[in-house]
Structures are given as C-alpha cells and as structure tokens.
Amino acid sequence: MKLGRQMPLNALRVFEAVARLMSFTRAGEELGMTQTAVSYQVKLLEGVLGELLFRRLPRRIELTEAGERLMPKVSEAFALLEEAMVTARAAANDQLTINTTATFAAHWLARRIGNFQLGAPHIAVRLITDTTLMEFNRDPGDVAIRAGRGGPGAWPGLVSHHVMDLDFAPMLSPSLLEWVKPLDTPRDLLKCKLIDPGDPWWRRWFDAAGVPDADLDGRPRNLFGSQALEASSAIAGHGVGILTPAFYREELASGRLIMPFDLVCSDGSGYWLIYPESRRNQPKIRAFRDWLLEDIEKHPL
After folding, report:
1. pLDDT (tens digit, 9 = 90+) per residue, 57-69?
2. Do residues 164 and 119 make contact, with C-beta atoms less than 8 angstroms apart?
3. Is-contact 180 191, C-beta < 8 A?
4. Are 183 and 189 in contact (CB under 8 A)?
5. Coil/strand/helix, residue 147
6. 85, HSE (Cβ side, Cα atoms, 13 Å)
7. Cβ(45)–Cβ(16) under 8 Å?
8. Alpha-carbon separation of residue 169 from 11, 137, 166, 206, 266 (angstroms)
C-alpha cells in the first residue's frame, strides 16, 4: 500500500502511545487528548490500513497480529524522527547565519568576526550578503545587519540596535589625483569621472560643499550594486567614489585611496542589527548581539 501524502502521522503517533502504554486513557493523558479523541485516531488508522490493531477486551486491550507487526516499525520511525529533530536543533544552535550587505561584510564584519568566534568557539558563522531587507519568515538568516533609518517602530516586529552612522565623502586613487590635479575646491571634482553621479549622496555632499549647481544629471551612471565594488573601481583609478570613511581606514592610511577634502556628510541613516522579537533570547543571537555592541562601543566607527 502506498500512502504517500495520506500518511496519517497523528494517528500513528496515537497508536504508538496506546500500544506502548496498553491504555487509551493513559495515552490520552500523555498526549493531552481525550479518550474519545484517542479512540477516533486509532479507528482512523485502522480504517486506512483495513486492519484491526487492538482487541478491545473487558478492562484491557491487546494488540492484534497486525498491531504486533506495526508497533516496532512505528516506534523505530518515531525514534528516528526524534533523533533528527535533536540533531537539527543542535545544528541550528551551533550555527549563526548573518544576512548583511557586501560592503559591511567585507570592510568590517569579516575583519572582526574572528574575535567573536574566539569568545564563542562553539558557534559557526555563516555570512550571506544581500542588498534587500530580508524576510525572516522566508529568507535564510538568524540576524541581519542593514543600512537605513532605524529607531523605534522602523521595522515592526523586529528588535533593532544601532551599530554605526553611515556617513560619506569623495575618495579617489593617487593615480587619478595626479592626472586631474589640482583639486583645490570641491567644484574641481566635476572635472573627474564620478563613479555613480546618480547616487543621492553626491547631491547632498556638493550642496554641503557649497556647489548646489553641480551638473550631475547628465553624467553616465555606473550601477555596481554595492559600495565595496565602487571602492574597488576608485582604487583602480576609474573615477571618484562617494564612500564611507570608516570602511576604508586601511586604504586611506596606506594611500591606496585619498580623501581630497575634509568634508564628511550624513543623510541620517546608519547600520542596524535587527532580528525578530521572538528570537531575542536565543543564546547564539544574544552572544553575537552582546559581542557586536560591546566591540562597537570599544572601537567606535
């Protein structure tokens, strides 16, 4: 007989309890069901199989031959299911999946996550990079780190913790600077190729720099999809990127990137650690949250 999708798992669970305890009443107590509901599930299974599973005798029950054949297989199957659940639960507790942007992953998290694992060696870390806000009930991930305007009520049903402000300034390579110099004023940047002139950060930065009439709309755009790729293009000398200084301290210190002006702007957004309210007390999430916020406090970006 091929049961397929009609596999009566609940009825089998009830049968296993009744056969193990040899009592409809005690099986109901164990499963939190009434005796009537237990009897119904057993009769349902007998109907599916076309066989009686129990002999109802005065003041007791006993397994029929069909019940004797079925009982060990069902017990073994539920034992295997329980073992699988324990294994899956242990694996879920031992792996922390972090969903974040490629830029934050490459220029901050990947460089620091080893410090977290030193303090929590039993937790394996998996990084997933994406540009959109994940759906926790659909997408893989225990926590997410996302850019946006967070704060109370920004993401209903989610807990959010501020990680860093997201500011920005123009940066370019020494080779490009040598080719276009001098860059004496912010307006001189308009002599250069801007990697993505359609990025709203450019308009905000030029306005703050006293160049409200900067011609940005007529310039060709490069849509790389992440700040990390724009930074790589800037380092290669392909144009001027509008980048977050905190992510490129090493490149600025080594001279691979140059920030020609001291003006750094912000649009009020930042990076936030977010996760469902229901996961607040999961040990692996609590461990990562505490480490991240403590590290940020000790080494502010």
Report:
1. 888 899 999 999 9
2. no
3. yes
4. yes
5. strand
6. 6
7. no
8. 65, 36, 11, 10, 9
Distances from the Cα of 120 to the Cαs of 88, 245, 289, in angstroms? 20, 30, 12
CA distance 237 to 234: 5
Q: Which residues, in sequence order, are CB contacts of 151 under 8 Å at separation 6+?
A: 160
- Distance, in Å, from the CA atom of 167 to the CA atom of 264, rounded to the nearest integer, reads 7
- Residue 262 has phi, psi (to 5 degrees) of -80, -10
pLDDT in tens, 72-110: 999 888 888 876 775 556 555 689 999 999 889 988 898
Query: pTM for this structure?
Result: 0.64
CA distance linking residue 52 with residue 26, whole number of Å: 20
Which residue type does 269 have?
S
How far is residue 99's CA from residue 143's CA, in Å, rounded to a whole number?
6
- For residue 162, give the nearest of 265, 276, 269, 249 by alpha carbon: 269
DSSP lists the bridge partners of residue 64 as none
Domains of the chain and CATH, by start:
4-92 (1.10.10.10), 101-301 (3.40.190.290)
Place of tokens 């940020």: 296
Length of the chain: 301
Is-contact 136 276, C-beta < 8 A?
yes
